[in-house]
Amino acid sequence: MQKAEMSEYIVYTKLAKMDKKNSEVLSKIAKDELMHYKKLKNLTQIDVAPSWWRVIFYLFLAKLLGITFALKLMERNEEKAQESYKVLEQAELLSDEEEHEKMLLKLIDEERIEYIGSMVLGLNDALVELTGALAGLTLAIQNSKIVALSGIITGLAAALSMSASDYLSRKSEGGNKKPLRSALYTGIAYLLTVLFLVFPYMVLNQPLVSLVWTIANAVLVILIFTFFVSVVKEENFKKNFLEMLSISMGVAAVSFFIGMLARKFFNIEV
Predict the structure, then answer these.
(1) Which of 28, 50, 230, 256 has its CA 20 to 30 A from that of 9?
(2) Which helix (H) or strand (E) holds 14?
(3) Confidence class for position 254, pLDDT limits 50, 70, 90
(4) What is the pLDDT of residue 250?
(5) Helix (H, G, I), strand (E, B) or coil at 99
(6) Is residue 197 a contact partner of residue 130, using CB atoms and an 8 Å limit?
(7) Residue 230 and residue 241: Cα distance in Å, rounded?
(8) Per-residue pLDDT reduced to its tens digit, 53-96
(9) What are the counts of helices (DSSP H) followed by strands (DSSP E) for the chain?
């Protein structure tokens, strides 16, 4: 616990320098973490070094996925600390930990979090539509380069279509979200997913092997993004992951058999 308090003190101090808008609150939490460390030191009578891998890990996450995501992960550890302090009957420390949790909840004002719905829309549609399309094209055409070209053209057109639809939808709804920015988040999420899914077909000449790699990429994207959303939105990760995975893979399986039937019915050899 003492090591955790020192590690979190360093993380909060660094994050306070990174996020000027919330610097005051983060600095306050950092000071409290240091105070917790000193109180625990009175019990143990030893100095404990911080866990530097933990410090680097959270700072890396803050840079890569945003400070809100890093804070939410830290918040989960705060909940574990509360249970530990209950056992030790450290009432003042427990009160501080509960106060930290409330303050952390108020820090969610990052732009990428505000437009997370747009990112979900673009990424989810790309996973469902393109995974299915690539599966169908793989069986119907059985030529990696043609499948890759078809996937890129289809994905680019769909990304532009999704962005335009999101823009018009946000504009008609009004509200605080900026339509153009929301459309950009949707389109970029869609396009990046398309490129990641099509990549295997661009480097391999075996279409079926490329399809297996593409499905693995899709599962990886679903895993990472649903974990991100579940942490930030405090939702059930397992439920969200299985739901998104079953939809994407279900559409891919249906499209796979449609491609097989289309190949036999039209008797096309490419």
Answers:
(1) 230
(2) helix 2-18
(3) confident
(4) 82
(5) helix
(6) yes
(7) 9
(8) 988 998 888 887 777 778 777 777 665 565 665 565 555 555 56
(9) 11, 0
CA–CA distances in Å: residue 82 to residues 1, 29, 108, 124, 172: 11, 15, 22, 36, 46
Structure tokens at 122: 């673009």
Pick the closest to residue 129 from 156, 107, 103 (CA basis). Answer: 156
DSSP SS3 for 56:
helix
Among the residue ranges 1-15, 209-223, 256-270, the one predicted with the least confidence is 256-270
How many residues comprise the chain?
Answer: 270
What is the average pLDDT across 152-181?
80
SS3 letters for 204-248? CCCHHHHHHHHHHHHHHHHHHHHHHHHHHHCCCHHHHHHHHHHHH
